[in-house]
Design goal:
343 residues, mainly alpha, Tyrosyl-Transfer RNA Synthetase, 2 domains, two-stranded parallel ribbon, elongated, binds tryptophan
């Protein structure tokens, strides 16, 4: 059995974009498939669909299932393998709600009010007021992670504060409620950040995000990728084709850094600076390289879209597996807390 477990998740917001891919999904698949020198898996991986978390910013639930399936198809297309990694909805495992309630006693509201990710959300979404559950967002996330005793949490940079809160809650629980047999019930999980966890949006102003409409979707075919790429903001000092450019301030160059080969990258850098490479050709090359990487995902996406029963079953099977782990952890929690003692 693998010594380390990875737990990560995403809110079901529908089709995923390149930022989800470089920020998390790609790393999930790498860790899922990582073998040690003896050929054994380094990690056990579990991936969660955070449908309760969606409710913190929107009460609309009509689209949740369709968005869940769309997102799951993107996960599968990107290489999440349900044989290795159970995939499941938070709302289908009652223990998430139960552990969330207990954890909410282990952290102060002032600690949660200081959460920088929350402050960012309030600013970005122009929120005038916040529901009580939104303040508890990281507490629910702590329950997600610790219910499965996740040791490693691959996430984008904005989620680091949430993993830190998870560590604090785990520490507090372990100190306060030692288990009579196993001692500490929870590990203190570590975040794992990818190099491209903050992929810029096409507008070059903020990271790629659905609400800002600055994304390239994983499902976008070559024509759509190029069409969107044409709108990408480049170095504003490079106006005419032969003006010398500054790759370090160019959004498209930041995409090349991830999607083009190191040799190509060096050439693009030199030719942009000298003025021999114009932005349109540069964007063409960038779009082509992105599409090259997306091609196998698009093919797999088509396959899963034609097999919706299979996709739905993958979810149900993942939920059955997750349930077993969650129930076991909750029993340990109840024992440690002496809840439900009868003598
Ligand atoms: N908050 C995460 C996000 O918005 C999603 C999430 C919910 C999550 N539960 C989690 C991520 C547990 C990692 C682990 O991206």
């Amino acid at each position: 059995m693998a010594a380390q477990r990875i737990l990560s998740g995403m809110r079901p917001t529908g089709q995923l974009h390149l930022g989800h891919y470089t920020g998390a999904l790609e790393s999930w698949v790498q860790q899922q498939n990582l073998l040690d020198e003896k050929g054994a898996h380094v990690y056990e991986t579990c991936f969660l669909i955070a449908d309760y978390h969606n409710l913190t910013t929107s009460l609309e639930t009509g689209e949740i299932y369709a968005n869940t399936l769309d997102m799951l198809i993107d996960w599968l297309a990107a290489g999440v393998d349900p044989e290795k990694s159970p995939v499941f909805r938070q709302s289908q495992i009652k223990e998430h709600a139960e552990l969330f309630l207990l954890f909410s006693m282990l952290i102060t509201s002032s600690r949660l009010e200081r959460n920088p990710t929350l402050k960012e959300q309030v600013r970005d979404l122009n929120m005038e007021s916040m529901v009580y559950g939104h303040l508890g967002y990281p507490v629910l996330q702590a329950a997600d992670i610790l219910l499965y005793k996740g040791n490693v949490v691959p996430v984008g940079e904005d989620q680091i504060p949430h993993v830190e809160i998870t560590r604090e809650i785990a520490r507090k629980f372990n100190n306060h409620y030692p288990h009579p047999v196993i001692g500490e019930v929870f590990p203190e999980p570590e975040p794992k950040i990818t190099k491209f966890s903050r992929l810029l949006g096409l507008d070059g102003k903020a990271k790629m995000s659905k609400s800002l409409g600055n994304t390239i979707l994983l499902a976008d075919g070559p024509e759509d990728v190029f069409k969107k790429m044409r709108t990408a903001v480049t170095d504003t000092a490079k106006i005419r084709k032969n003006d010398p450019g500054h790759p370090e301030v160019c959004t498209v160059f930041s995409y090349h850094a991830r999607f083009s080969s190191p040799e190509q990258l060096a050439g693009i850098d030199a030719d942009c600076r000298s003025g021999s490479l114009g932005c349109v050709d540069c964007k063409k090359l960038c779009a082509a390289n992105i599409s090259l990487e997306l091609a196998p995902l698009i093919e797999k996406r088509h396959y899963y879209q034609s097999q919706m029963d299979l996709v739905k079953n993958i979810l149900l099977e993942g939920e059955a597996k997750a349930n077993v782990i969650a129930r076991h952890t909750m029993q340990e929690v109840r024992t440690a807390m002496k809840l439900g003692e009868t003598n």
